[in-house]
């Protein structure tokens, strides 16, 4: 069985500051992928970043980076230099070989960026 | 532009009625998915299809049905058997299982169903 846990229901950050959104996962598979998606108030889910279980380097995409700690089974999202437009729900997801690589999602974290 | 179109955006249903949510993609993706989103629950998988004329139940398939007669289309029917259908429904597509974990989903804008 695979499970994604996001323990922060809500987070606040000052504009231009960095923020870390937590995600832990549980799987017995050796081959898996970890994802972060953003959901603005409009409702559409937007893919942000991906990390494969065999990737040794942390993934980065512009202001987004994924802090992958395999031994601790964590995949935290770091947003640098927060912007007002970053205010949204953020979902961590995982796909595993045993789950036919169908993504399973966490419950999400609401991020509010203050000016 | 390539993408996923969901319709209608908002839908109201009386108890006992079946309703069908449309999902069309022009990304030439093999796999399509339906997720349900409730406040504080994240996304839960209803059905998925990895190839035309084949689909699989997800975690919460009871009260729902789907079809995949064309690669581009994956409609979801919410039947009267679904006890609590009021929710936000998201359709997604992807290139499917390539033997790696990199199954990135592209989502539609969602359909919000309210039962009156």
In short:
The complex is a heterodimer of chains A (about 120) and B (about 120). Chain A is mostly beta strands and about 120 residues long.
Order of helices and strands of chain B: EEEEEEEEEEE
Q: Could you report the average pLDDT of chain A, rounded to the nearest whole number?
A: 95
Provide mean pLDDT of chain B, rounded. 93
Give me the strand/helix succession of chain A.
EEEEEEEEEEEE
**Class derived from helix and strand content of chain B:** mainly beta
Largest sheet of chain B: 7 strands, mixed
Question: Segments of chain A where pLDDT lies below 50 for 5+ residues?
Answer: none
Count of distinct strands of chain A = 12
Overall geometry of chain A comes to globular
Number of strands of chain B: 11
Report the span from N to C terminus of chain B. Answer: 36 Å
Helix content of chain B: under 10%
From the alpha carbons, calculate the radius of gyration of chain B and give it in angstroms.
14 Å
The chain pair forming the largest interface, with residue counts per chain, is: A-B, 29 and 27 residues
Question: Strand count, sense and closure of the main sheet of chain A?
Answer: 6 strands, mixed
* Beta fraction of chain B: over 45%
- The helical percent of chain A reads under 10%
Number of helices of chain A: 0
Determine the number of helices of chain B (DSSP H or I, runs of at least 4 residues).
Answer: 0
Secondary-structure-derived class of chain A:
mainly beta
């Amino acid at each position: 069985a695979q499970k994604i846990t996001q323990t922060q229901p809500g987070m606040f950050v000052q504009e231009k500051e960095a923020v870390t959104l937590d995600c832990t996962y549980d799987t017995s598979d050796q081959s898996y992928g970890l994802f972060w998606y953003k959901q603005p108030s409009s409702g559409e889910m937007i893919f942000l970043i991906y990390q494969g279980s065999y990737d040794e380097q942390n993934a980065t995409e512009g202001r987004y980076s994924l802090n992958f700690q395999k031994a601790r089974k964590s995949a935290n999202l770091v947003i640098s230099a927060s912007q007002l437009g970053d205010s949204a729900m953020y979902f961590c997801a995982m796909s595993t070989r045993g789950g036919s690589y169908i993504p399973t999602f966490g419950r999400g974290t609401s991020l509010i960026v203050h000016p | 532009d390539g993408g996923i179109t969901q319709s209608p955006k908002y839908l109201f249903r009386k108890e006992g009625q079946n309703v069908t949510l449309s999902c069309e993609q022009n990304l030439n993706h093999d796999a399509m998915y339906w997720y349900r989103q409730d406040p504080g629950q994240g996304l839960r998988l209803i059905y998925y299809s990895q190839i035309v004329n084949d689909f699989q139940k997800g975690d919460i398939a009871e009260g729902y049905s789907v079809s995949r007669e064309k690669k581009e289309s994956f409609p979801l029917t919410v039947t009267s058997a679904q006890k609590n259908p009021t929710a936000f429904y998201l359709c997604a597509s992807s290139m499917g299982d390539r033997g790696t974990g990199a199954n990135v989903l592209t989502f539609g804008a969602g359909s919000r169903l309210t039962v009156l």
